[in-house]
Amino acid sequence: MSSIILNALSGRSRTCYLTADGGLGLVYTVMIAGCARLSRSRIYIHHHSFSYIVRRRILMDLLLIVSGANAVHIFLSSGMARDLSKQYGRSINSLVLSNAAFVDCANSGTPSRTGEGITIGLLSNLTADKGFYEFLNIIREAKQRALPIRGVLAGPIARDNDRAALESLQDELGEYLDYRGPVYDGEKLRFLGDIDVFVFLTTYLNEAQPTVLFEAMANGIPVISYDRGAIRDQVRDGGHVFPQDVDGVSEALNVLRRYCEDPDALAADGRAARAGFENERRRGQTLVAKLFEAPPTEVDIR
Q1: Which of 268, 276, 118 is nearest to 199 (CA)?
Q2: Is 123 helix (H, G, I), strand (E, B) or coil?
């Protein structure tokens, strides 16, 4: 269910903040927005999901109508704002608040590379739509071509067929692949310290702005990913983001081969990743401090 804050900011005005649910919870969001508008509250709607952006939904149409033209919509990126405006054919007032604002970078730093070759990593729920099989195929191709690329996988595997696929390849890949299971706290930091590139060829329909990519970028780790959700705006110069209709395995291997041959290119992309994260985090934290005072930007599809 959507989270709501309704409070009096002064004797005359009130503010209603709510998150737009990605599922049937939008029914409650619409109801709350309607009550807030009737009470003449200032409405802020925070968007975290692309489910109603990639596919038009009647409930989101209704929310936009009920909340009114003066509602302020908070997005993960400017691209997300444009996509929603275009999908629903209406102008909206927007603020951009990146997930970087909420990433703890106290323990982040640039990874120290040792030895030859590079190590790629994937930390996620390890499923087909999160790039699990593409990651395995990259390592498999790297070994067959004798490329100095090894991989570290981390995260839970819930499905038996995915677990069986990994087990069937572990003997074949040998030292090329290290599976660590779910990692938390210190183990997660160790994972990030052990990799040079984060490879996330996600095809998940509702992918938005994965926090784990910002965690990698905070550690100076460039990202290779598909263009899903807000990822292109998230990564920018800190890696490589491919269109969804290309062969991601081949494209990733081309980038990784170049990194192997030109360590300076890898280092430059790592610096760009960290700088991009720091800029997003700084802007986000500035906005959080004065969220209900910031002037919104109008996104007009015309």
Answers
A1: 118
A2: strand
Q: What is the pTM of this model?
A: 0.91
Q: Under 8 Å CB-to-CB from 5, ≥6 apart: which residues?
A: 15, 16, 17, 18
Nearest to 83 by CA among 283, 295, 237, 229: 229
> Could you give the dihedral angle defined by the CA atoms of residues 75, 78, 81 and 85, in that order, rounded to the nearest 10 degrees?
170
DSSP SS3 for 56:
coil
DSSP annotation of 214 reads H
Distance CA 167, CA 178 (A): 12
Cα–Cα dist 13/261, whole Å? 61
The full DSSP string for 50-103 is -HHHHS--HHHHHHHHHH-TT-EEEESSHHHHHHHHHHHT--EEEEE--GGGG-
User: Tell me: the pLDDT tens digits for 105-149?
Assistant: 766 655 555 557 999 999 999 999 999 999 999 999 999 999 999
Between strands 118-123 and 197-200, the pairing is parallel
Contact 233, 79 (CB under 8 A): yes
Helix, strand, coil percentages for the chain (3-state, nearest 5): 45, 20, 35
